[in-house]
Structures are given as C-alpha cells and as structure tokens.
Please model this.
Amino acid sequence: MRFVNQSLIAAAVGCVLVFGAGPVTAGDPDKGRAADQMKWGYQAAKRGYWLEALNRFEKANGLTPNQPRILNNIAVALEASGRFEEALVAYETALGAAPNDKVLRRNFARFKEFYDAQVNPMLGPTAEDQEKDGVVPLDDTEEDDDA
Model:
C-alpha cells in the first residue's frame, strides 16, 4: 500500500457516515444485531477509531449483506483509514445496490474528486494507459537502435 500524507486523509474524509442499518424488525434477530454493530461503528468513527468502525460495519454487512447504508459506512471507514483502492471498490458496490441514494452519491463524488486528484496520480499510469499513449515496454533481449 502506498503511503499517503495524513493531512490528505483528513481532507478526504468529508464524507458522511450514515447511522442506522434500515428498519429493524422484531422477527429478524440479525437485523437487530446489525443495527447494534452500526451503532457501535458510528460511535467509534465519531471518536476517530476508524479501524474499529470498519470492523463493526463489516460485521453488520455480514449479518445483513449489501445494505447501501452499511456499504456507505464501510467505504467511508476505508477511506478514512487510507485504504483508498478498497474504498473505491466499496463505493462502487454500494452504488450498484442503491444508484439513486443521494448521500451515497454525494460521498462518492467527494471521494472520487479526491482520489482522482491526489491518489490516482501517485499510482502512475497503468499499462493500458501507456499502451494508449504509444508507450510500449522493451524486452531485455532487444537491442537499442541508438547503440
């Protein structure tokens, strides 16, 4: 994983955590346990304990998978922990589950702006990008024409 300045992380985490795992019904104990995990994760995040928050949100997701609000919080916690590539995947997964969720879309837009400006350039161009630009890696066995 690449090192990213802590101030960049602080700037990135302007995203909103969403409290609540959706409606809890008395007949589904997993939903109740997921709601508890969300509550504890939210409390941990408010205190800046992002890894604990991530752990709680992931437990909630295990109990009630693919809930957009839980996936949003996983993405925010990953982002706050500096795990940007994983956050990108989490946001995309969440948007796949709820493409019209306004909070989620706003969080993703803020994250993507930060990611494209600060993180993606540090990773350098992909082989696909280089190929599009006409950059082709040389084989070690090929001789240089200038030699």
Observations:
- The chain has one domain: 6-122.
- The domain at 6-122 is CATH 1.25.40.10 (Serine Threonine Protein Phosphatase 5, Tetratricopeptide repeat).
